[in-house]
Amino acid sequence: MAELKTKENDASVEAFLEAVEHKKRREDAFVIKEVFDRITGWPAKMWGSSIVGYGSYDYKYPTGRTGTWMITGFSPRKTSLTLYIMPGFGRYEELMSKLGKYKTGKSCLYVNKLEDVDMDVLEELIKASVQHMVDNYHKDNPVCGSVDV
Q1: Is residue 51 part of a domain?
Q2: How far is the C-alpha of 17 from the C-alpha of 32, rounded, in Å?
Q3: In a domain, 50, yes or no
Q4: Which of 93, 50, 90, 89 is nearest to 73 (CA)?
Q5: Which residues, 6+ apart, have CB-to-CB distance to 11 below 8 Å?
C-alpha cells in the first residue's frame, strides 16, 4: 500500500508563505491564514511542502487503508488560492450562490484573488465546514478524531 506523501510536519508556515512568488497571492495567503487562525483556534501546520492545514482526523477506508488528514486548510498555488473545504460543497448551496467568483473541485475552492469573493460569506463557509468536520469526525479529541470512510 502506498504511503500518503502529504503529512503534517514541522516546517515553518510563515517561511512558506513569505516564499510565495506571486505578490498578490502571498498577501492573500497571509490574510486567509488570519481568517483560518481565528475561525479554528488551532495552530497552522505545514502539510507536505505546500499546504497550510488546521486540525486533523484519522480515517479508514473499507480496503483497510488508514491515514490522517487535516480538517481544513489552504494553499497559495500558482494559478489560484486553494481552500480545502473537506465536506465538499453540496450542503452549502446557499452560501456558494452568494460567494462571488470561484471554481470548485471535490473539496477544493479555487479563488483567483480574495477581492473576487465576499469575505463574510467565505468565513461562514469555512466555519460551517469546520463545524461539520468537528461534529462528524472529532468525537474524542478537539484536535484529532477518527472516522471510517
Answers
A1: yes
A2: 11
A3: yes
A4: 50
A5: 46, 49
